[in-house]
């Protein structure tokens, strides 16, 4: 059974895609090392003209990264010089874009309608209730369910 890397390496059209994915993964690891406090709240988008582009998950995180960008850039450059894999990377800036994560769609639970026996029991209870507002609400509920 082939591993996915073998498939990508053996196909000339897919090999550049694998190299790009590995480069992006190295950049993400670089960002995690340089800014561990922000790595859970942001991700590397890419590099544009020597600027490391970071996608922050909120405006507040983006502002904190912008404020700390000179020190984060210095850390990043230091890590690049020490690293063998990213040694030739010359970064001159860190740019931040806000990329809010959308919440997962809420799954609505399907509630089964009450059985006819339950509705009959509610109807008999409604006749004995002394509170007219509650009695009217129960009767309206029963009418709606039938």
UniProtKB/TrEMBL annotation:
It comes from the Bacteria. This is DciA family protein. It comes from Methylophilus aquaticus. Pfam families: DciA (PF05258). InterPro entries: DciA-like.
């Amino acid at each position: 059974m082939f591993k996915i890397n073998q498939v990508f390496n053996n196909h000339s059209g897919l090999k550049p895609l694998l190299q790009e994915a590995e480069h992006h993964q190295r950049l993400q690891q670089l960002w995690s090392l340089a800014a561990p406090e922000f790595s859970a709240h942001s991700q590397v988008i890419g590099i544009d003209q020597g600027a490391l582009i970071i996608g922050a998950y909120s405006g507040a995180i983006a502002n904190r990264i912008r404020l700390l960008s000179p020190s984060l850039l210095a850390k990043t450059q230091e890590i690049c010089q020490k690293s063998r894999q990213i040694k030739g990377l010359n970064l001159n800036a860190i740019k931040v874009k806000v990329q809010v994560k959308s919440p997962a769609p809420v799954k609505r639970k399907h509630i089964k309608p009450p059985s006819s026996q339950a509705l009959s029991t509610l109807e008999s209870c409604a006749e004995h209730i002394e509170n007219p507002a509650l009695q009217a609400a129960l009767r309206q509920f029963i009418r709606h369910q039938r």
